Amino acid sequence: MAALTVLLHGLAVAAAASVALGLPVLRPEADPALGWLGGGLILLAGSVLDLHRRLARRERDTLRRLDSLQRSVDALAERLDRRIASAEAGDSAAAHEAVLQEVKLLHTLVARLGESRPPEAPEPPRTSPPSRTAFQAPRPPDLRSPTSVAAPPMDDAAVLEAVRDALAADRIDIHLQPIVSLPQRKHRFFEVFSRVRAADGVVILPDRYLEIAERAGLMATIDNLLLVRCIQLIRETERRQHAIGFFCNMSAATLSDAEFMRQFLDLLAMNQALVPKLVFELSQQELRAGGAVTMGILSQLARIGFRFSMDRVTDPDIDVDALLRHEIRYVKLDCALLLDPAMDVRIADVRRRLEGTGIDLIAEKIETETQLDAILRSGIDFGQGYLFGGPRPARKPP
Predict the structure, then answer these.
(1) Is 269 in the same domain as 371?
(2) How much of the chain is helix, strand and coil, in % rounded to 5?
(3) pTM, to two decimals
(4) Enclosing H/E stretch for 157
(5) Which of 200, 296, 206, 292 is nearest to 249 (CA)?
């Protein structure tokens, strides 16, 4: 191609020279300048033709390159579509499997409602009530929340029947209460609560049904259902890309339910990313009374990556080494206990022994700004209570 270009260029120069030199000889009467002008025009025409040819060739080369690039882009797009389709198929399969596992769990829980369970032996008298309101005076209902609707007078048999019916009809509602960082008051966690909704829409509060359900052997079923719902809530926040964790109560009855725990761990094996966002909460009494089986299950959950919280603390004499050994990373202390002058020395000792351990204190049942000011002066990390928001219904995941 280069030789042809040189040859054509040489021919154009030769033709131009022939016209420039030969025209005066062939036409003596003509102006000699015309020969040079004609030769120049021929040379210019040759140059223009050569330039046009070069531009045409460059355009063809450019079009070929563009065509090649387009084919490459099309091929990459096709490969990307195949990979996306493959990934979506895999995600869909995983999600489908997770839903099947949840349905299996829920089916197991509901099936247990028909089982006859002997009443549990009455517990010996306790020096302090196990209720979450051990240090909190009764408060008026929050009229802004539907959860505050008080149930009409019901005897224990009616309450038990309402609980069984609510479990069978999936009317155990989930409510969330924020746990905030101090002093910023930024939502860091939500605690998950259960509420029993009767067939007529009346909400039966925990202080009315918990003891009755426990005597009837239904608390494990309620707690287990709560755990499944909690996993669904965490998955929903993952889809919305919300960085927040959930505290979920776990009773000794749930820990000792080997069949449920096995299925629950199978479910979590398909949702490993959700594990760090779930904190199991046990009472101080249950942790102290836990036998080898309970502590063994806690250790197994800790190896998977779970963290724990201890609440309903009635005795500030806390074994910090035991907390660390069982991955208990949060301790909840009642606001009234923290602000009791008689407890100042013991609470200060607890805070001193927890420093540098990675265990955070949560002050719960904070209801007034005055209480909050006193809590802030004590250097507590997190707060919970009606001052920051009461339990509110959680939107059911799709």
Answers:
(1) yes
(2) 60, 15, 30
(3) 0.64
(4) helix 156-168
(5) 206
Asked if residue 250 lies in contact with residue 230, where contact means CB atoms within 8 angstroms, the answer is no
pLDDT digits (tens, 9 = 90+) for 335-352: 999 999 999 899 999 999
Q: List pLDDT tens digits, range 49-84.
A: 666 677 667 667 666 655 655 565 555 555 545 554
Crossing angle between the packed helical segments 219-239 and 206-215, to the nearest 10 degrees: 130
Domain total in the chain? 2
State the Cα torsion 55-59-61-62 to the nearest 10°: 130
Domain that holds residue 53: 2-75
Burial of 343 (0-12, 13-18, 19+ CB in 10 A): middle
> Are 189 and 317 within one domain?
yes
Confidence of residue 137 (pLDDT cuts 50, 70, 90): very low
Give me the mean pLDDT over the 121-130 stretch: 37
- Torsion-angle region of 360 (φ positive above 0: left; ψ -120 to 50: alpha; else: beta): beta
Q: Are residues 184 and 47 in the same domain?
A: no
What confidence score (pLDDT) does residue 205 get?
84
